[in-house]
Amino acid sequence: METIVEIKNLSKNVRKRQILKNINLTIKQNDRIAIVGANGAGKSTLVEIISGSTSKSQGEIKYNFKGKQLRRAIGIQYQQGDWPPGISANDVLTFNRILKNNMYNLDELIDIFEIKDFLKQPLKKLSGGQKQRFNALLSIIANPELLILDELSTGLDMNIQYKIIDFFKQFFSEKDKTLLIISHNSEEIELLANRLIIIEVGTIFLDKPIDYIIKKWGSVRNLMMSYFKGDLINEKDRF
C-alpha cells in the first residue's frame, strides 16, 4: 500500500517541556493504528500535529493525499469542541452540507450515532456522551482518507458503543481508508486496529501489528496490562 503520511525526526516543545522526541513514523493506506500511552505521553499532540491543528517544533511531515487539501483529506474527532453559544448540532451539520463535498449519507449517520433527539439543542448544553457521538459523526461526514478518533467509546452507553464500533469496523473493511485511534479499550482496539503503537514520554516505545501482539501476548489486553504494570522494561520483552 502507498505511504500517505511520512514523519521524520518530529519533535514538539511547549515552553521548556519536550512533548514529542524525534518521532519517526510511516502511515500507509489502509493502516488502522491504535495509539496507547499514559496520560501526558504525547498521544494527542502527535495526532493533532498530523491533522494540522497543532504545529511541530522540529522535523518533517510529508503527505500523499493525491491533491486533496489536508482539511478535506483528514477527519478528526475532538473530544469536546469549542462551539459558540447558541449553535446547535443541526446548525453545524447544515454548514457542513454547504461546504463539503463527497459527504457520507448524513441521514444514515444521524441514525447510527443516535443524535436525532438533540439536533436542535445548543451544543454547549449537550452531555459529554452526546458531544462524543456528535464529534465522531463530524469526523467522518466528508468521507476523509485518514480518520483520527480520540477515545471513541469513552463515556458512551454499551449499546451505542457497539453500534458505533460496528459501523466503523464495516466502514474500514469496505473502503481504502486509514485510521488513527487513541484508545485504552483493548476490545475496541482488536476490533478496529491492525497495528498498535505505544507512546512513552514522547517517544515510540512499541510499534507492532495486532496479529503479532495476539500471537505473542494472547491479546491486546494482556500486552497493555504488562506494559502499564511495568513488565516490558527490557527490549527483548517487546519483540
Outline of the structure:
With 239 residues, the chain is of the alpha/beta class. It has helices at residues 43-51, 70-73, 89-99, 106-112, 128-140, 158-174, 186-192, 210-217, 220-228, and strands spanning 3-14, 17-28, 32-36, 58-63, 74-76, 146-150, 178-182, 195-200, 203-209.
Strand and helix order: EEEHEHEHHHEHEHEEHH
What strand order characterises the main sheet? 5-6-7-3-8-9
Per CATH, the architecture is 3-Layer(aba) Sandwich
Total domain units: 1
Return residue spans where pLDDT drops below 50 for at least 5 consecutive residues.
none
User: How is the CATH topology named?
Assistant: Rossmann fold
Residues in helices, as a percent range: 25-40%
Counting helices, strands and paired strands, the structural category is alpha/beta
Tell me the overall shape: globular
Write out the CATH superfamily name. P-loop containing nucleotide triphosphate hydrolases
Keywords: ATP-binding, Nucleotide-binding, Transport
Protein name: Antibiotic transport system ATP-binding protein
Pfam families: ABC_tran
InterPro entries: AAA+_ATPase, ABC_transporter-like_ATP-bd, ABC_transporter_ATP-binding, P-loop_NTPase
Explain what you see.
By secondary structure, the protein is an alpha/beta fold. It has a single domain, classed as Rossmann fold, CATH 3.40.50. The protein contains 9 helices and 9 strands. Strand 1 (3-14) and strand 2 form a beta hairpin. The longest helix is centred in the C-terminal third of the chain and has 17 residues, at 158-174. It is globular, with a radius of gyration of 18 Å. The model has no long low-confidence stretch (mean pLDDT 89). Pfam families: ABC_tran. This is Antibiotic transport system ATP-binding protein. Keywords: ATP-binding, Nucleotide-binding, Transport. InterPro entries: AAA+_ATPase, ABC_transporter-like_ATP-bd, ABC_transporter_ATP-binding, P-loop_NTPase.
